[in-house]
Amino acid sequence: MQRSAVATFFLYCGVGLFLVVTLAPVLWLAVMSISLPSDLTTKPLSLIPRHLDFSRYARLLTFEANSPGEAFLMALRNSLASSLGATALSLLVAVPAGWAFSRYRNRGVSAVLYGVLATYMTPAVALILPLYFLLSMLGLLNNVFGLILVYCSILTPFTAWFIKSSFDAVPGELESAAAIDGASTLQTLWWVTLPYARAGVATAALFAILLAWDEFFYALLFTSNQNAKTLTVTIADFAAGRATDFGLVSAAGLLTALPPVLIAFILQKSLVAGLTAGSVKG
């Protein structure tokens, strides 16, 4: 069926509006990151910098004592460690949990699943005190591993629910055939179920990484120096001074966005397949 000219016009207008709303802030960050400080404070504001200044990127990627580069690179290390570590630990728990939720469908198991999801829906501010006291007792305040444990409280319910929906799309007959051939439950999960649901697991891992990478509230409260501060907190520190270098903040924001973009680009096929998994049961 052919679309009318009016429908095509509105379609392209919608796509154009979506691109403007999505890309305009990123493009403005790029312009600010290479603009001179005088270009960012003049009135009227200049949308095109008169001189290109890439020195801020060099400052952020140069490891010197007591410099913005030291703070940024240390925070990059902490963000990578906390997001990847929390994702790996969450998947270690969520994969068998999601399989159990998918295969044992009774009221008790469903109640547990919804109870787990309720913890994911709980406002973060309500969990501050118990998490703080727990980390304090374990000696994990201002510690990357402590941050990993906190992030697991966010990621594990989400990944378990997401992976459960992927396991729902795997035919149970495959597992029954594997059991008849003598495979154990763990062997069936690893060699039969996971290969069919790998797209959904990869998608869950991607979203978990993004959630942990962008988390700010817990990282702000439970870290106090460069040993554990993540990129989100460090960028906020860059913007907290009396004489804020907005170009430096913009450059840090763009560099911070690169790792998730690269991960999403690498996993794009799994992302598309994982989002559509479960829409049609085999």
UniProtKB/TrEMBL annotation:
InterPro entries: BP-dep_ABC_trans_perm (IPR050901), MetI-like (IPR000515), MetI-like_sf (IPR035906). It comes from the Bacteria. PANTHER family: MALTOSE TRANSPORT SYSTEM PERMEASE-RELATED, MALTOSE_MALTODEXTRIN TRANSPORT SYSTEM PERMEASE PROTEIN MALG. Its main location: membrane. CDD domains: TM_PBP2. It comes from Labrys okinawensis. It is found in: Cell membrane. PROSITE patterns: ABC_TM1 (PS50928). This is Maltose/maltodextrin transport system permease protein MalG. The chain crosses the membrane at residues 9-31, 80-99, 111-134, 140-163, 196-213, 246-267. It is a multi-pass membrane protein. GO terms for cellular component: plasma membrane. Gene3D superfamilies: MetI-like.
